[in-house]
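Hi L.,

You mentioned the student needs an example of a multi-chain input paired with its predicted structure. This one should do, with 951 residues in total across all chains.
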Amino acid sequence: MDYFQDIIFKLKRYWADRGCIIQEPLDLEVGAGTMCPETFLRVLGDKPYRVAYVQPSRRPADGRYGENPNRLYKHAQLQVILKPSPADVIEQYLGSLEAIGIDLSKHDIKLEEDNWEAPTLGAWGVGWQVMLDGLEITQFTYFQQCGGIDLELVPAEITYGLERLTAFLQGKDSVYDIEWTDGVTYGDVRFKDELQYSVYNFELADISILWKLFEIHETEAQRLLFLYRGLKTNKQRFPLLPTYDQVLKCSNIFNTLDARGAISVTERVGVIARVRKLAVGVAEAWVDQTANSVPASSILSRDREGAVAEGTVQ
Amino acid sequence: MNLLLEIGSEEIPDWMIPGALDYLRSHFPNAQADGTSRRLTLRVTGLPEREADREELVQGPAITAPPQAVQGFARKQNVAVEALTQAHGKYTYTKQIPGRLTREILAETLPSIILKTPWPKTMYWTGKTGPRFIRPIRWIVALFNDEILPFEVAGVQSGNLSSGHRRLGLSSFPVTFNNYEAALRENGVILSAAAREKKIIDEIHVRIKPDPALMHTLVYLTEFPTVITGNFEPEYLKLPAEVLVTVMRYHQKYFSVEHHDGSLAPHFVAVMNTASDPDGLVQHGNERVLRARFNDARFFWDADQKRTLEQRLPDLANVTFQAKIGTYLEKTQRIEGFVAILDGSDHALRAARLCKVDLTTELVKEFTELQGVIGGLYALAQGEHQEVATAIYDHYKPVSMEDTIPRTLAGQLLSIADKFDTLLGCFNAGLIPTSSKDPFALRRAAQGIVKIAVEAKLRIPVRAFAEKNLPLREFMRERIRYYFKDLRGFAYDEVNAVLATGWTELVDVEARLLAIQAVRPTADFEPLAAAFKRISNILKQAAHVPGAALSAALLEPGPETALYIAFEQTRHKVKQLPYQEALAEVATLRPAVDLFFDKVMVNVPDAALRANRLALLHALLTEFSTIADFSEIVTNS
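Structure written out for the whole complex:
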């Protein structure tokens, strides 16, 4: 039997062998692997890209104080982006299941229609939920739009729910019983997060402070986007990635406020629209910045005039 | 000659496949279309090798034209002048156009036929400007009499290679028209939906709750369906059957198993997309998932019982009904008011107060399709009266026009109040549905009101509730028309005739419609309707202003007086009669009306006489138009 961490190692190895960069998780709070710049920004533009990473994903409203065997405040997603998607992408995906020891000749796999949409990101795609013996183990999406922009190259996004998959493979009825490694359970490692974050998110988070934080990050994102829009030249050194960090902060604070029951009915739609506006703004700026950039190699060989301005890029 | 076309795709949503097959089939006279989750196949027989040859008559210059012109025409047609013929004063040439080869036509047209398949939602995958389809196309078989029809769609070249079931077959193998179905079968694919369904039915050996929609889903979700039966711990049967069935049906796509008395048995039937479960792993896995789902449901049920519906009521202030309209708490208060206006019982009022509270429960958040049902179950579990619980349970009904209406009067009134509140709220906020967009399902709400009012025979002044909002009034009228015309099958002109007279109470609308329908085949009815239309036109043309009383003294003896007498007699008789007999009675006026129009001139120069005749006609029209406006009846005459 594979431990939780073995399954992660094997999946990473599998996708590394198929040309993926293996990235580390984003060091900010996100609700899903899709929100990381490695997905949200990299799927934009016409540059092929392949990446896989584990992303701890926080959903404050899903917390259950560690009491529910199937629900977590923070779960781990293995996110794979294949841009553009290869013709045999589904067979490749099924191969990854074989790679972690699922003998598909003895199991039932179905791809059931499940289209994906993230209103706060202005993103949507079509695809399936992959059902293994009646259990949803993966979300498979062909992105069509991100940040309100039609994508040049259609990426396949494969998102594995690692706890569910491992519980299935290990035959555990509770995620907390998953064996992380020899002698250590998932509960040993993660129970405290689940309990303490549930207490914070549902009981102790200070609503007025969260609102202040939301506004601070929103203001900072707006300020930066405004600055970018005023730029005529020298766009590629502009810090759009830090701008996007501010958007992610807003998104997580919004989720926490929501879990806290602090977002009134009329506010909700409006707040989602505010986050979406920022996300779309960053996506548009990112596309513009990419289009107005020259590859690093040609920067080095450019004439002096250009080189002075862009000297700090490397 | 025959054609085999197979479009190989990644998994197509099951519910879209039959529509796509109908579309493909519609292009050929002798076509059979079949589909599985990964392929759409068209097989056509009896195709000609080529189109029939045609002749085309080309007109040239006039016979009188100079020879150069005639020679020029002949040269252009590439023939000698002697080959030209003459007709209608012109030179002509009969051109022989050989029919094109069918294979050429097919190779040219199939790509666009494929890409024009009407899908509810499409995607692109080869790049932003690439073609759109439901999911990526991965292979295409196109054979005309077993010869490859060469073409390309979305970068995929057609050929003779098909692909089998993802795990039971080869990923690539050649096929011919004749061996196609057998070759697929060898590679783990049952092509025919009927055969897949039969396989499923044959393999079910327990008593399942019949579910044609689920069966349809499973037939098109699979290429090689195989049934497995699983079990769950009987202790879960303590949860309400509605919850268990919903989990199995909607979340897991399982058939529920029942005892002979209809109660649930602790088993389920699942359909795999593979041939066997040699080690029992699939059964075990599905049982495990179901147990986790049931555990969740039980966890939610128990958690929800910590506070009663009554205690939860204030929480509705945090649930939006619609941003512009407000919260569910406000909606609840309006529904209560509405039920009071409708003269609802104390039980109906209590149900109104609690009907939306289940939206705050964990179980409904998890299983939204059980809203109302859960509220009803919780109400009963918390000691509310059975009447209250049933009304809450039923108040979203009818959820479709095939669905039944709420079982009790309290439930019927509550449902109507809820739906009317939604309609009024949305229309007043300007959220009016368009022909393509109806996000709040207002059509369904309005039709639900109509269905309940008619079928439960409720004397509710439907029109009065919509009176203040003109678009809503028109909307209701349209839904009433739709209900009687499209769902109940009344003739459109009868519906128009009845609605033109008014639609205050729908029970009354129905009674008048039934009367017209019964009387219409009688000999006098349609001619009389034509006469009424004529009266209506005469009054319109004369710009008749009603007011002047009919003066018996001004009536001329003969047809005019005869009509007046018939009118007076009928008028008195009709007052006491039910609609159908009243209409039959009105129809007996026909000879008198006909004679009047035959012999009496209405538009006479004498103003007093003319006014009196118009008054007679007006009296006739208004008196007998309370059941229906006969001028709306479409007649042949």
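You could point out the following to them. Confidence is low (pLDDT under 50) at residues 297-314 of chain A. The first strand of chain A starts at residue 21 and ends at 22.

Best wishes,
N.
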